[in-house]
Amino acid sequence: MSSINFPPVKEQLDLIKRGTTEIIPIDELEQKLQKSINENKPLNIKLGCDPTKPDLHLGHSVVLRKLAQFQQLGHQAVLIIGDFTAMIGDPSGRNQTRPPLTFDEAKENAKSYIEQASKILDKDKTKIVYNSEWLGKMNFEDVIKLASKYTVARMLERDDFTKRFKTGIPISMHEILYPLAQAMDSVAIESDVELGGTDQKFNLLVGRDIQRENNMEPQVIVTMPLLVGTDGVEKMSKSYGNYIGIDDKPQDIFGKTLSIPDDLIYLYFELTTDLESEELKSIEAELDDLSKNPRDIKRKLARKLVEMYHNKDAAENAEKEFDKIFVNKGTPDEIEEFNYEGENPVSIIDLISIVNFAASRGEARRLIQQGGVSIDGEKISDFNQNIQLKSEQVLKVGKRKFMKILVNN
Hints:
Elements: H1 9-17, E1 22-24, H2 26-39, E2 44-49, H3 58-72, E3 76-81, H4 103-117, E4 126-130, H5 132-135, H6 140-147, H7 152-155, H8 159-166, H9 173-189, E5 193-197, H10 201-213, E6 220-224, H11 250-258, H12 265-272, H13 277-288, H14 294-309, H15 312-327, E7 337-340, E8 346-347, H16 348-354, H17 361-369, E9 373-375, E10 378-379, E11 386-387, E12 393-397, E13 401-407
Parallel strand pairs: 2-3, 2-5, 3-4, 5-6, 7-13
Antiparallel strand pairs: 1-6, 8-11, 9-10, 9-12, 12-13
Helix pairs in contact: 1-2, 9-10, 11-14, 11-15, 12-14, 14-15
């Protein structure tokens, strides 16, 4: 093996500690890092992901970015695609059973997951494996032996299981097997360090125990905070509609970023960007300076995020477009077109639904009641209104959704 130029342990720890919630235990990590330098051997850094949905957002990027930092330090990033565990359904943070995916659904989602994750990771240096490779080969005897290594009492120490057990919400047996299956991933790849969100802490600790049971040196655990979404309340999630997608258009990334509360600006810089420590200190000083407008610092964050997932030109254009629409109250230069071939006049609620600007008729009604719907700049206030469409009218729904309606009859 060719010599690897690992930075000194202290320098590695400074980067690894950035933005982390816990490192368990820190002294073992120091020992592993020193050993890797002495033996000129990279550590296996594990990140497991169940491809339950095909789209990634900035919340997912937090742990992916930490994995990328380990890559930068010279270690081996191992991305485990949980195509097998996705069929169980991770119960972490859930108050009910998570619907499992089929094997084909998991495989299809994984393709998109890997493609988007490659915007953060160096794909050529990332080892990508599927846990069906080893979990799919286990027979029932293997499962019984694995289950014998952990007690029900210890499994019920897990917060979400404890709450569900006390309130009488069912816990299925396959959910109890999930942490054990995830632990076998650590055994299979001989994980030295495993990354995860704070909601994964229990599962990661089980991995340490099962590695010991297999006469292996236990992995160190590095947990990352769950990124709060643009609403400033709930964790970022597509379900809550408070997410910024890695594959979002530049204008959407820019606009959504400017909607986050001011008290989240530094956290977003720290967890979702690759700024150096000195740059982060400068951002912190700016935020503490009462003469500075947080909006300007937030614009810097928005430009940075667009540049990371697109490019510098896209970031500049997204800012110009934002100012045109929201500051100068104009319309975008490029508006998606929709060929309308239905009845004319048409109910405004039907029109919003037809162009997919609302998930339901109820949501369309709420948007109208909130004053968020207009045609050619004229606000629609009556959700029972029928609209006589003319070609090239512009429908606006909410702050960022525009559609040019082309009438073909």
